[in-house]
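All the exercises in this workshop are built on plain-text protein records. Sequence and backbone structure share a record, each on its own labelled line. The question running through the whole workshop is how a given chain folds. The record below serves as our worked example for the rest of this section.
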Amino acid sequence: MDVVPLSVWSRFGWVSFAVLFVWTTRAVDGFGRNQDSELTFLLPAGSSECFYQTTIKNGTMEVEYQVIAGAGMDVDFTIVSPEGVRLIVESRRSDGVHVVEPTEGGDYQICFDNSFSRFSEKMVFFEILIEGPGGDTGGDEEWPTLDEPDGSLLEYKLEYIRDSMDSLYRRLERSRQMQTVLRAFEARDRNLLEDNLWRVSFWSCASVLVMLCVALTQVYTVRKLFDDKRRVCT
């Protein structure tokens, strides 16, 4: 049985490490280019704001929005296709989730309208999730192929690592998106609580003042009823 020199194993290990490093670096670089986006902005009273999202043909676009602050917490919402067709039209809504499938190639117009409100500005959060044909997200690009012999152990291990990293990336992205949506819900609930706290405090103070006035009026009336106005003659 031939003995492989230690230097050969060392070289093989360094080559494997270098290949794995290149794969990981390119994969992370591909993950960074994600088409998903999210934004929180202030929509002034009596105005509208539009955003544009570029999509590919036969993909999927999911749009979720929430009004997290402002009187009434409602806006008008519209999605317009690249051909100028209004796909989604909503009036005076506080939140919504819409999926456009399949998408057309081009720029979709996403508009928020607060023109019906004359005095109150609104704070709006929205998130756009893009998936390509077959459920591929924008950041999941193809990994580069390596010039390795077919069926080798190294290629099998790299393929397994690639699949594991892809699955981990998708799960982390979904977790991040859910946390962002939950933060938006928490911000909206906090604003509602603060607004309701002011109203409850105001009406509670008004009720206490009314009760004090009624109590004083009752005491005065009772004292008047038992007040003896007869004069004693001497």
Notes: DSSP finds two helices and eight strands in the chain. Strands lie at 37-43, 48-55, 60-69, 75-80, 86-93, 95-100, 106-113, 122-131. Confidence is low (pLDDT under 50) at residues 1-33, 138-143. Helices lie at 6-32, 153-225.
